Amino acid sequence: MAGRRGRGTGWIVGILIILALAWVGYWYAARYAADTAIAKAAARGIGCGDVAVGGFPFQLDVRCDHGAYAANGSTAGIGGFLAHAPLYTPGAINARLESPLTINLPQRNIALTATWTAGSANGGAWTDGVNAASAAFTTLKIENSGNLPLATASADSASGALSPAGGGSYNLATSVHRLSLARQDGGAYPTLDLDLSAIARDVGALGTDPAKAFLAWLRNAPKVDINKLRVAANDAIISASGALSLSKDGLLNGNILLRYNSIDALANLIETLHPGTRDKYAAAFQGITAMSKPVQTEDGPALQTALTFTDGLIWLTVIPLPMQPLPAIKF
């Protein structure tokens, strides 16, 4: 009887040893894959002043100090990052991001510097490439010394996320609290809060270059379902939901339900963003008011109207708004 117990214990110990050796092999295989990816990145102009790989035995850690990218005269850099990939959840990556982030595109006269007090990013990938990503920043500030109309942008907090919605579509979510924008001429836009929840339709697989995949989608008549868009600035609270798309020529089409707390607050906000708009489109604001009905929202009482876009033209039901068509959007 004692002999049988001994043999049983021996089997268990043997299996545990085999599992432990397999796990060690798994970790070193992941380490090899990370080293290979780092080498390939370096061949493409992406590197670190100092890079270290560790995390044995339960995760793979990659630390990069002073990350940099250079190609065709363009450069980018980041203070550094520490990425963790838990081996018990394959495909998941989370990272702490260290500021600053710099982007210089001389051919487009773009020079940006972003700083933050806390930054993080998370990602998900499988055999077909990236399928999820998110990032969050606290006390974010972006300074522009190039040829963009905005001089600075800052926010108390900013976050964004992308996740699969099925059928090659993706959920998009972003939230920005106390966003402040300043123009190059010294003028400032009103501080605002922004929340967006939407679905990007028929994007397809993101592969190993999500930015390229989304750019191709944007150039090929993209469709978006807006679950919630909310903007709050000064006295205005505006929200919308609906479905929009761009034609091959970049003209807007679709339908949305627009909700606003006050037509005067809405007109004043648009006037602040584009001086002269309130008087120019006074008839359009009157038309919106006439075609609106009272509704209750999470922000309290509001007015709601339906807007239809047809190749850039804006309609209130079957009545065109007395304003110029929206310009084409090109990517």
Structure notes:
- It contains five helices and 17 strands.
- It has 331 residues and is an alpha+beta fold.
- The chain has a 17-stranded antiparallel β-sheet that branches.
- It is elongated, with a radius of gyration of 26 Å.
Strand content: over 45%
Q: Distance N terminus to C terminus?
A: 77 Å
How are helices and strands ordered from N to C?
HEEEEEEEEEEHEEEHHHEEEE
The number of helical segments is 5
Low-pLDDT stretches: none
- From the alpha carbons, calculate the radius of gyration and give it in angstroms: 26 Å
Sheet/helix structural class: alpha+beta
Q: Count of DSSP E strands?
A: 17
Average predicted local confidence, pLDDT: 90
Largest sheet: 17 strands, antiparallel
Helix % is: 10-25%
**Shape verdict:** elongated
List keywords for this structure.
single chain, 17 strands, 331 residues, 23% helix, 17-stranded antiparallel sheet, alpha+beta
Layout of helices and strands:
Elements: H1 2-43, E1 46-54, E2 59-71, E3 74-86, E4 92-105, E5 110-115, E6 118-126, E7 129-144, E8 150-166, E9 169-183, E10 192-201, H2 210-218, E11 223-233, E12 236-246, E13 252-260, H3 263-273, H4 277-280, H5 282-290, E14 293-297, E15 300-310, E16 313-316, E17 319-320
Antiparallel strand pairs: 1-2, 2-3, 3-4, 4-5, 4-6, 5-7, 6-7, 7-8, 8-9, 9-10, 10-11, 11-12, 12-13, 13-15, 14-15, 15-16, 16-17
